[in-house]
Amino acid sequence: MPPELKLRNALRGIAARMRACVLVRRLVVCLVVGAIPTLLLIAAGKTGLLFKMRLDYWPLWYSFVPLAASAVVGIVWGLWGHISDFQAAHAADEALGLRERLGSAVVFANEPPQRGEMLPALLADAAQHCDELDPRKVTGPLFPRASLFVPAFGIILAALWFMPQFNLFATEHEMHEREALKQEGKELEDLAREIEKKAKEANLERTERFAGRIESLGKDLARGKLGKREAMKEAAELTDEIKAMHRELAESSEVGSLQEALANARDKKLNTGEASRILDDMAAGDMQSAQQRLQDLQNKLQSGELSESEQQQLAEDLQSIGESLQNSSAEDLGEAMQQASQSLQQGDTQQASEDLQQASEEMQQNSATQSLSEMQQLESLAREMEFAEEEMSQSDCEGGT
């Protein structure tokens, strides 16, 4: 084997061993650094200190995040950089006392001197010293003494992890109470998401904002960030705001006018179940359901499912509802229903279907119908919040049982 090739092979072996040593040493350093906060977090969780500090809203296994992050950093740091042939040669010269034989050979091989006859001799001498060159003698042991900390920390971590909960900073009663509040928080989150979704679909901005605040309160409860007294105070304040907004809407003239008109319409005798159900939905503030029923009527008219007599009965009902809505805050909706009634009486089902579509759009855009719908949603939301307050107040009793 040519001397130059023998030298490079030997240096590659030394460089590989050096890279492995660098990786192990840097990984050990990072693991030791990451194990310290992991140990502290697990110990704090097992003794109830995290509970006392209200930092227990994450699962305990999240304590291993610093250790995992340090392992990733250690691997990246260990693989970072490159060890050149000269660095490997210099390390071998230093470790084995070769008096720069390998380093000089590498330098002159990369930058041949003017007297080229020296290079073969340098390479031959360096190659001769590479015959029994052991990379382990150059780098020393792969695992440094500090690596003993890793299994030691591992044993301590395992002991802490499997140790039973030993709450020095919290009583069992406090633990039960916190768990009850967390459960109530999760239920509030689910309720708020459901209401927020419906409010967004119905374009009820005020209800959507309140639902967002309830969801935020639920998250704080579910994570244990709030104590019972603080949670009940926030819930009570939020309930009062919802009730105040409900009263404001209920006392508004446009809602009052619409409610009076709907009450007059319900006093009249209607011939069809479809019209009665639409009226009931509107009176209950469920405009989405009422719009869906109008859509169903459109489909029935377009498909010819209604007989002539059924169409005439429906026309009479729509006329009756439309007349009741005249001179109210939903006058445009009433006009659309009366127009649909006239189209049905004339036998023009296509035009009647378009008129019903116009009525559905008026129902969605009319500020009075939107306010009535929002008022009913807020009333339901206030009841839910009162129920949540009651559950929170009883969490104390449940925790003590």
Give a written overview of the molecule.
The protein has 401 residues and is mostly helical. The protein folds into 3 domains: 3-162, no CATH class; 172-251 and 377-400; 254-372, no CATH class. The chain is 79% helix and 0% strand. It has 18 helices and no strands. It has helices at residues 3-47, 49-52, 65-79, 85-96, 101-110, 118-129, 135-139, 149-162, 172-202, 205-222, 228-250, 253-267, 273-283, 287-303, 308-325, 331-345, 349-365, 367-400. Helix 1 (3-47) packs across helix 4, helix 13 packs antiparallel against helix 14 (287-303) and helix 13 (273-283) runs parallel beside helix 15 (308-325). The longest helix has 45 residues, at 3-47. It is elongated.
Task: Describe, in short, the structure shown.
With about 400 residues, this protein is mostly helical.
Main sheet summary:
none
Listing every helix as H and every strand as E from the N terminus to the C terminus, the arrangement reads HHHHHHHHHHHHHHHHHH
Cα separation of the termini? 85 Å
According to DSSP, the number of beta strands is 0
Portion in beta strands:
under 5%
Number of helices: 18
The coarse silhouette is elongated
- Unreliable spans are 397-401
Rg over alpha carbons: 40 Å
Given helix and strand content, the structural type is: mainly alpha
The tally of domains stands at 3
- The helix content is over 70%
Mean pLDDT: 83
Summarize the topology.
Blueprint: H1 3-47, H2 49-52, H3 65-79, H4 85-96, H5 101-110, H6 118-129, H7 135-139, H8 149-162, H9 172-202, H10 205-222, H11 228-250, H12 253-267, H13 273-283, H14 287-303, H15 308-325, H16 331-345, H17 349-365, H18 367-400
Helix pairs in contact: 1-3, 1-4, 1-6, 1-8, 4-5, 5-6, 9-10, 9-18, 10-11, 11-18, 12-13, 12-15, 12-18, 13-14, 13-15, 14-17, 15-16, 16-17
